[in-house]
Amino acid sequence: MICHIVMFKFKEFAEGRSKAENLAEAKRRMLALREEIPEIVSMEVFLGAPGSADTNYDYILVSTFRSMEEMLRYQKHPSHVAFGNFVKALREPDGRASIDYELKE
């Protein structure tokens, strides 16, 4: 199993909406991918707690896949690509970090 974690730091205001509005919409759109992309085994999205440090990330995605190949298919899926384009306009230029690691059984 592969665990894929991605974190974003959102702009305070983007695309005519506040950070809070964009975070809620990004979470909604990401979780909708569970129904569209069969390679996803599990997926959770968490938003940073109000009042946390300004240097913290605002959004975290934790997802799992049966293999690296399935995770790579997920990343190329048109719905995921569209989500990536959507989020790119909302996040800080350097506001993305990620890791993929193998879960030991």
UniProtKB/TrEMBL annotation:
Span of the signal peptide: none
Classification via SUPFAM superfamilies: Dimeric alpha+beta barrel
The organism's place on the tree of life at top rank: Bacteria
Gene3D superfamilies (UniProt xref): 3.30.70.100
Domain Stress-response A/B barrel: residue ranges: 2-101
Pfam families according to UniProt: Dabb
Protein name: Dabb family protein
Species, as recorded: Neglectibacter timonensis
Lineage summary: Bacteria, Bacillati, Bacillota, Clostridia, Eubacteriales
